[in-house]
């Protein structure tokens, strides 16, 4: 396979992937398609499909030994026995409408989900993707009575241990229950749980989301619905989730994580203009096909405009000419019948950080240490941030990534010294979540900046695609709140940005705009992120926070993927 892989920058990673055991040619295609061209993909499938054929008999034997799955139902859903579910699991709904709180989400739309496929669901923030998932879970529009599970990004509390919630004991079948609990325990371990007997009420929101994910995966539904599943996961958990999803029946995922979508998606459903449009392939294929489609629409629009203009000019020129009256009337009829093609909608905005003066050395930290409840989070870390640095920090949840950024931003007491030579700005999700909901946007801007000039407010917020004034902050979407926070940061012209999970709650268009802004920002950027595509696009120096230390990956993203996958 070396002859195929050598042309690709991630050749070492591809070589490792080729050593995996695949269950089908479809899985081989899904695994390698994001990384190689079509011709090489065919060759890879040909070479690796031999392994698949050899493993078929072994897999068949394993399946016969496996105990039938026992259905575990969420508390809020009506319990059904396995034989009550329908065999036909395709979802085909025509001319459907969906309205929530007076807002039209779908109008005369078609929804098609074919079993044994993985779909990504795309759409701008606030367009109604989560509402659509809820409607599917409730089996609106005559959706077949199949086993559906929806995992939302919501905190929940029950007075049960983690393992009891995921795999309750069936006292009538204790042996089977123990087998199932062992299976659940393995899933929980892969999601980073060390103590599966801990009460769910003691968990943070992020860990609660992991419990829901583990439960849904354990239940093996006919249709799994995931709403932004990677938001609260570290990279290792995301990579595990990718592998698991590829083994499941039918999955529909809302996500802004482009790497994740590329890895899992066989089709993309796009929610736009109250319709659902299907695109074959993963996220990159969708982008390519959509660009071709938009170019074709642009050509049709230009030709239509030229034809209409040509006809109108002829009519205007010869309208008063009696000898050409019949020809003019003929042209008028042609013009009246000619379809009016609207210009294609182009959704584009950009983020833009202002030009700043910078210095060779912007920040230095010496011997930073933090302890919490007797555990060392950070151990004597020394760190320098220089002009133009693009540094990203990854690591497991709870490893100390956010703690490290807070220490650099002087928002958390620690031992050691932090000397800032530049103008530092710190962005964290809690800043977005904790905005004063009862204030209107412009009043909040004045409070934070001391600047009452509306023209300055408008100029600064427009750099981040925000068009608001008197709206209450509570009326803004998560994306709009993020834009407001970035606009405030930019107002003070920092030359060092500390960003803690900046892509959370942004849609893909906004993430790409932020990526472009970071690439041309004249200062330095240090970020904590689990978004692999964002890391690949924006950062050159990669560290892992582990066991209280920062470990440098000198080969960057390729080195990271190799380290984490194997």
TrEMBL record:
Mind listing the GO molecular function terms for this protein? ATP binding; ATP hydrolysis activity
UniProt protein name = ABC transporter domain-containing protein
Q: Which SMART domains match?
A: AAA (SM00382)
Q: Which UniProt keywords apply?
A: ATP-binding, Nucleotide-binding, Repeat
Which species is this UniProt entry from?
Answer: Anncaliia algerae PRA339
InterPro entries on file: AAA+_ATPase, ABC_tran_Xtn, ABC_transporter-like_ATP-bd, ABCF, P-loop_NTPase
Q: Which residues form the ABC transporter domain?
A: 91-298, 363-566
Q: What is the lineage of its organism?
A: Eukaryota, Fungi, Fungi incertae sedis, Microsporidia, Tubulinosematoidea
Gene3D superfamilies, alphabetized: P-loop containing nucleotide triphosphate hydrolases
Question: PANTHER family attached here?
Answer: ATP-BINDING CASSETTE SUB-FAMILY F MEMBER 1 (PTHR19211:SF14), ATP-BINDING TRANSPORT PROTEIN-RELATED (PTHR19211)
Q: Matching SUPFAM superfamilies, A to Z?
A: P-loop containing nucleoside triphosphate hydrolases
Classify the source by domain of life.
Answer: Eukaryota
């Amino acid at each position: 396979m070396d002859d195929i892989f050598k042309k690709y920058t991630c050749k070492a990673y591809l070589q490792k992937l080729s050593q995996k055991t695949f269950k089908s040619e479809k899985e081989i295609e899904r695994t390698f398609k994001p990384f190689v061209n079509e011709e090489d993909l065919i060759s890879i499938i040909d070479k690796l499909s031999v392994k698949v054929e050899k493993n078929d008999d072994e897999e068949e034997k394993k399946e016969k030994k496996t105990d039938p799955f026992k259905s575990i139902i969420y508390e809020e859903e009506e319990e059904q026995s396995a034989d009550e579910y329908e065999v036909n699991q395709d979802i085909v709904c025509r001319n459907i409408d969906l309205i929530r709180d007076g807002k039209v989400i779908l109008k005369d739309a078609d929804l098609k989900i074919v079993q044994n496929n993985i779909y990504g669901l795309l759409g701008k923030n606030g367009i109604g993707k989560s509402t659509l998932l809820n409607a599917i879970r409730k089996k609106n529009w005559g959706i077949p009575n199949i086993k559906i599970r929806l995992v939302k990004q919501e905190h929940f509390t029950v007075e049960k241990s983690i393992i009891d919630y995921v795999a309750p004991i069936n006292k009538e079948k204790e042996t089977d229950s123990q087998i199932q609990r062992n299976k659940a325990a393995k899933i929980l371990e892969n999601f980073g749980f060390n103590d599966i007997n801990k009460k769910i009420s003691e968990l943070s929101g992020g860990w609660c989301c992991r419990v829901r994910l583990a439960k849904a995966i354990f239940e093996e539904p006919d249709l799994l619905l995931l709403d932004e599943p990677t938001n609260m996961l570290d990279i290792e958990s995301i990579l595990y989730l990718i592998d698991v999803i590829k083994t499941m029946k039918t999955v529909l995922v809302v996500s802004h994580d482009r790497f994740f979508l590329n890895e899992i998606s066989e089709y993309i459903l796009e929610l736009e203009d109250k319709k659902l449009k299907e695109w074959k392939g993963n996220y990159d294929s969708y982008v390519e096909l959509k660009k071709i489609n938009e170019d074709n629409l642009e050509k049709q629009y230009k030709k239509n405009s030229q034809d209409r203009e040509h006809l109108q000019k002829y009519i205007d020129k010869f309208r008063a000419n009696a000898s050409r009256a019949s020809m003019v009337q003929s042209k008028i009829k042609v013009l009246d019948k000619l379809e009016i093609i609207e210009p294609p909608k182009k959704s584009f905005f950009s983020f833009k950080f202002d030009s700043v003066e910078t210095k060779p050395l912007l920040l230095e930290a010496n011997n930073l240490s933090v302890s919490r409840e007797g555990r060392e989070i950070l151990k004597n870390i020394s760190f320098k941030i220089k002009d133009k640095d693009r540094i990203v920090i990854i690591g497991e949840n709870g490893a100390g990534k956010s703690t490290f950024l807070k220490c650099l931003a002087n928002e958390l007491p620690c031992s050691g010294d932090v000397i800032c030579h530049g103008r530092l700005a710190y962005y964290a999700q809690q800043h977005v979540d904790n905005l004063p909901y009862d204030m209107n946007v412009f009043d909040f801007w004045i409070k934070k900046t001391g600047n009452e000039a509306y023209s300055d407010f408008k100029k600064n917020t427009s750099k981040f695609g925000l068009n608001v004034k008197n709206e209450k902050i509570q009326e803004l979407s998560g994306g709009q709140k993020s834009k407001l926070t970035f606009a405030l940061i930019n107002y003070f012209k920092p030359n060092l940005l500390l960003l803690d999970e900046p892509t959370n709650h942004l849609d893909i268009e906004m993430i790409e705009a932020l990526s472009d802004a970071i690439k041309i920002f004249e200062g330095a950027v240090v970020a904590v992120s689990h978004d692999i595509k964002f890391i690949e696009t924006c950062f050159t120096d990669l560290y892992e926070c582990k066991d209280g230390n920062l470990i440098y990956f000198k080969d960057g993203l390729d080195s990271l993927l190799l380290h984490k996958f194997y």
